[in-house]
Structure formats: C-alpha cells, structure tokens
Design brief:
- By secondary structure, this protein is α+β, with helices and mostly antiparallel strands.
- The chain has a single domain, classed as Muramoyl-pentapeptide Carboxypeptidase, domain 2 (2-Layer Sandwich).
- The chain has 5 helices and 10 strands.
- Strands 1, 2, 3, 4, 5, 6, 7, 8, 9 and 10 form a 10-stranded mixed sheet that branches.
- Strand 3 and strand 4 form a beta hairpin.
- The longest helix is centred in the middle third of the chain and has 23 residues.
- The N terminus is likely disordered.
- It binds zinc ion.
- Zinc ion binds next to strand 6.
Length: about 220
C-alpha cells in the first residue's frame, strides 16, 4: 500500500521503480554522497535529550566502514520499553531510529501481542542493523539505510509463553499470527518512512525492514508494503 501526501505525479510514478531494488543484503561496491538532512535530523534528536544512555542504550564510538557510512553518535540498543523487550543481537542505531524503534515496540508490538496472541513480547530477533552496504547488496545500487545506522531488520518475536513468531512462517501462519504480524507492520508504517514486509519483494520474505530514509525533500513521502 502507498501513502502519497502532496507528491508531484512524476515522483509518484518513478519512486516505485526506484524502490523495487530497495534495501537489504550485503555488498561493498557503491557510489554515495552525504545528504545534509541526515546530520541535521540526528543532531536535532541528540539535542532534544530524548535519547539518554541507560543500561540498555550505550553510545558506540567507531562503526568502521568506508566513506559516508556511520552516524555522528550511534547507539547500541540491547532492549526497548525500559528493558522489557530485549534485542538479540543488540542493534546499532542512530538517535532518531532509537526513538522510533522504542515507540514501535512499546506502543505497537507489545499491544499487538497482547491483543492477538494473549501474551507479552520479551524479545526481538534482529536480523540486521548497521551494515555498510548497498540496497539488497546490488553492486552500484544506492547505499542502504543500514549503512547509516538508520534501518532495522526484525525476523522474529519471542513471546513470554515461549512461542516464537517468525516473519517467514507467521506471515502465512495461523490467523492469530497473521493478524499479529500485520498489526506490527501497520504500527511500523505509522512510525517509519520505509516499511518492507514479505508483501514487498523476495528480499523481505523472512523479515520486516524499517528505516527513516527521506524519499522526498521534506520527508513526507512514505513507503509501506
Ligand atoms: Zn533491511
């Protein structure tokens, strides 16, 4: 599904083509240049004080990777919702992502687990976070948001009763699993600029990709598939 607020027609027509090659696996060959909004949105987030160091959120100094990869002050996030939902492994994320991911877990995923699965969520399986590479590992493609610590891939949800809901099986699983995962996607679409589920393409058959990319100048264009 596409949300298109106030976007010129030619952008609407071209973006789906560009996004067909969007996002996930690895590969070192790319051409990229620094985009000013990245630093300004991260600086604004850091200055707001909304992200503070805790036992579950610690700054990491050097991410490695060449060129434009990385972030000003990346964080290692090992849990969300005040430590109630752990991440395995911990995710490396920039400041705006920390806020959005925490909000997603606390106010979307946790309520969805209660509503559709009758239990609480205790852990997310992180399939990928920071990784300096192109979208889907295609040589010459645009640098992935993963390269900016601006993206997260989630492949499974561990529940308090011991069940594990994977995106791969659950997407076509029981009615409750399907409802839970679609509610999780809907919640992501309210919070992130890009959300790619198994409905998007073959690269996302086993995980949700979420990021805070800017698809148009003021960042109002969103992708939810
Ligand atoms: Zn991804």
């Amino acid at each position: 599904m596409w949300k298109v607020p106030f976007v010129p027609v030619h952008v609407v027509l071209l973006l789906p083509l560009a996004l067909l090659i969007a996002s996930c696996a690895g590969g070192p060959s790319y051409v990229a240049e620094k985009e000013p909004w990245r630093d300004s949105s991260e600086q604004a987030c850091l200055a707001s004080g909304s992200v503070q160091q805790t036992a579950f959120l610690t700054p990491v100094s050097n991410l490695g990777g060449p060129g434009v990869c990385g972030a000003i002050k990346p964080f290692e996030m090992s849990a969300a919702d005040y430590g109630r939902v752990t991440f395995r492994p911990a995710a490396i994320l920039r400041c705006p992502m920390v806020n959005s991911v925490d909000d997603w877990v606390k106010n979307s995923i946790a309520p969805a687990a209660a509503r559709y699965l009758g239990t609480s969520i205790v852990q997310l399986t992180v399939a990928s976070s920071y990784s300096c590479r192109t979208r889907n590992g295609i040589a010459g493609a645009k640098l992935s948001e993963h390269g900016m610590a601006n993206a997260l891939d989630v492949s499974a949800f561990l529940l308090a009763d011991g069940r594990k809901i994977t995106v791969k099986r659950g997407w076509h699983g029981t009615a409750d699993e399907q409802a839970f995962l679609r509610a999780v996607r809907s919640g992501a679409c309210e919070r992130f600029a890009t959300v790619l589920s198994p409905d998007a393409d073959r690269f996302h058959h086993d995980h949700f990709h979420v990021d805070l990319a800017r698809h148009n100048r003021d960042g109002t264009y969103r992708v939810c598939r």
